[in-house]
Design a protein that fits this description.
This protein has about 160 residues and is mainly α. About 65% of the residues lie in helices and about 0% in strands. The chain has a domain at about 15-110. The chain is built from three helices and no strands. The radius of gyration is 44 Å and the shape is rod-shaped.
Length: about 160
């Protein structure tokens, strides 16, 4: 048995490439495990944020309901004061029929009975109220017919 150096394989053994493949596979699996671990941390953080946001929304809803209840009290008071003013103005209007001072007040302040010449107030109220969702859009105003050119003086050359 003779030793022939040309008959030896280029790689000293098959174990070295298999070791490199195994090492690569181990690094890949380690990276995947690390990635899953980071994703788990991220999902836990998102869940905790969702829980705190849900609690904040519940608190905000509770505060909103309390605020609406407080505003309802204010609206009731406002309506009561408005009805008192309306009664007062009705009395002033009735009194203006026989009293000159009351007539001056009615004329100065423009006090009128509801519905009697109060379209301006109704239009102001409509302007403040947003339109209903199912309301039709307003009709376009009629277009003016095209004006015919009047006798224009001719341009002098």
């Amino acid at each position: 048995m003779s030793y022939d150096p040309s008959s030896q394989p280029k790689f000293p053994s098959v174990h070295l490439p298999i070791a490199f493949i195994a090492l690569t596979l181990a690094v890949y699996i380690g990276a995947q495990i690390n990635s899953v671990s980071e994703q788990t941390k991220l999902l836990r953080w998102q869940i905790s944020n969702a829980d705190t946001n849900e609690q904040k929304l519940k608190d905000a809803d509770k505060q909103w309901k309390e605020m609406v209840a407080k505003q309802n009290d204010g609206v009731k008071q406002s309506n009561a004061i408005q009805s008192e003013y309306q009664e007062l103005f009705q009395e002033v209007l009735d009194l203006s029929k026989v009293d000159d001072d009351a007539k001056k007040i009615v004329d100065k302040w423009g006090i009128q009975r509801p519905g009697a010449g109060a379209p301006a107030a109704a239009s102001d109220q409509k302007a403040e109220t947003p339109p209903a969702a199912d309301a039709k859009p307003a009709d376009k105003p009629a277009e003016k017919p095209a004006e015919k050119p009047a006798d224009k003086p001719a341009d002098k050359k």
